[in-house]
Fold adenosine deaminase.
Amino acid sequence: MAIEQHGDAQLEGVSIRSLPKVSLHDHLDGALRPQTIIELADEAGVEVPEAAADDLADWFEDQSDSGSLVEYLKTFDLTIAVMQTREGLRRVAKEFVEDLAADGVIYGEVRWAPEQHLGGGLSLDEVVEAVQEGIEEGEDAVESGGRDIRVGQLITAMRHTDRSLEIAELAVRHRGRGAVGFDIAGPEAGFPPSNHRAAFDHLASAFFPVTVHAGEAAGLDSIRSALVDGRALRLGHGVRIAEDLDIVEQKGEEVQVRFGDLARWVRDREIPLELSPSSNLQTGAVAAWGTQLEDHPFDLLYQLGFAVTVNVDNRTMSRTSLTRELSLLADAFEYTLDDLEAFQLNAAAAAFLTIEEREELIELIGEGFSA
């Protein structure tokens, strides 16, 4: 049983699922099929709160809708518990790729923290290799079905532990063997990117791409540290950059905005924002603006020229897909196909690929939308 696909949403008479998409912010341990969790938990002797896949999907959604990132993150205890063996990691990674392809994704980056998957006796290198095997099996399965997809790994360090330099070295070691970038994740407040300066120095010296979770559970100082200390090329979420915007006057649809220095830098340098609308509501990242999708500053950032991208964050926890996120945004802000294409082009330009590969991806998106 795959993650729910939420119907075949239509926009201007076109299936959103059929459109080519790019997924940049998608956690491996947040994208398990409920049935897979049940089966792997049975093999590992892990207790699950619900015995049926649909009921377990409901449980994840209910538990995640707390308004707190800390509470939201607790749901990962279950998914990580069933991802401690080579076979478990391979299966989850393979299904991750298949589910992306079923949602129309042609390029994706999967982020996950190897240090959280050593309970079964595997080494850091072995867990990365197991996930890569699963990714390649998924890519092959998709190709045999007549479609194409490519997925790269974002090797992630947990920001509340002290292994970030070791994980950065691991990421660089697997460059060319699946790893395309580095990230830090976990509880953001109280654990700034500056704590991991040694890791970011190592990555910079190796010219290895970095994205950093920032501007989700913490504000502008976290974003500033991601850019200055982390040399981040993208911001994981980054939604709270809107705190550096001062709405001076609003007349109907006309809005005059005064930019702070940080917001202007992010906008003018076209630093991509990995926005995840449903997740941002669940974790309270946009609580300062409201509790409904229409309150999300996504549209304000888009209209002001920020490099916004659309992402799922955690498909299982938010019970979502990229098709669903795009459909929700289109309904909330009356977006057209041209807008949805712009989001995909932003994501393609932000992908941790060579410029030739990004140009090829951009061409595929253009062809898919024009068709």
